[in-house]
Amino acid sequence: SPTISVELSISTLPEELSSSNTLFLCILRDLTLHKAEYGLLKQKANTDYLTGLANRHRFADYLTKQWNICEQDNLPLSIIFIDIDHFKDFNDRYGHIAGDRCLKRIGETISLSLPHRDTLAARYGGEEFTILLSNTDKVAAHAVAERVRTAATQLRCDDETRSFSLTISLGVTELQQGESAATLFDRADQALYQAKKTGRNKTITA
Questions:
Q1: What is the mean pLDDT of the chain?
Q2: Considering only CA atoms, which of 71, 54, 53 is closest in space to residue 181?
Q3: What are the residue numbers of the active site?
Q4: CB under 8 Å to 126, separation ≥6 — which residues?
Q5: How far is Cα 99 from Cα 107, in angstroms, rounded to an integer?
Q6: SS3 8
Q7: DSSP letter at 201?
Q8: Whole-angstrom distance, CA of residue 196 vs CA of residue 171
Q9: What is the mean pLDDT of residues 183-190?
Q10: What is the distance between the alpha carbons of residues 204 and 206, in angstroms, rounded to a whole number?
């Protein structure tokens, strides 16, 4: 049977109302609706409104949690940086409505490519995305990145009169013992830069 969240408050009645026996007044309030509304607000606060992926705030919280788990248990932790190729030119040519449609499709593609529940994908900003893979080394992370890249090449972002296609570039790296998040992010960013510099539509692992 389902669990119902309630709030219970108990107070004693004044002596003049309780005669020789102490009487109590109990107020029971159903919190089901309140809990559902709170859960919805929390989800909205942690979600990118356009793509449905996690936002940067949720990503930062999750990174801290998984970082601590992986360090404690000596498990690998990998990260993928993703950037849509020539997206500014695409927006300038076709407009922001078409651009938003493509961002949403890329977000859906990333979400469908995640390998397990300990993985989190986030929209990091603009046309940039990131995937955090707990208990995953960079070889396995590279395979995930290639799956995302291949799926992205098959996307078509259609409107009433046109069909668009986009490619993505990806940088992959794995957490090294004792390094900071800034160093991890910088190495992933450099790998992404190399992917874009050497032709785009590719995955570079550092």
A1: 88
A2: 71
A3: 127
A4: 87
A5: 12
A6: strand
A7: S
A8: 9
A9: 96
A10: 7
CA-CA distance, 47 to 55, in Å (whole number)? 5
Residues 6+ apart with CB under 8 A from 46: 54, 55, 57, 58, 61
Phi then psi dihedrals of residue 42, to 5 deg = -65, -40
**Tens digit of each residue's pLDDT (9 = 90 or more) over 2-51:** 677 788 888 887 777 666 677 777 888 887 776 777 666 666 667 998 99
| DSSP β-bridge partners for residue 120 | 132
On the question of pLDDT at 161 being above 60, the answer is: yes
3-state secondary structure the chain: CCCCCEEEEEEECCHHHHCCCCCEEEEEEECHHHHHHHHHHHHHHCECCCCCCECHHHHHHHHHHHHHHHHHHCCCEEEEEEEECCHHHHHHHHCHHHHHHHHHHHHHHHHHCCCCCCEEEEEEECCEEEEEEECCCHHHHHHHHHHHHHHHHCCCEECCCCEECCCEEEEEEECCCCCCHHHHHHHHHHHHHHHHHCCCCCEEEC
Q: CA nearest 105: which of 162, 155, 39, 179?
A: 155
Give φ, ψ of 54 to 5 degrees: -65, 155
Q: How far is CA 58 from the centre of its chain?
A: 7
Give the H or E element holding residue 193: helix 181-197
Q: Is the dihedral of CA 38, 39, 40, 45 positive or negative?
A: positive
Structure tokens at 153: 């090449």
Tell me the whole-structure pTM to 2 decimals.
Answer: 0.79
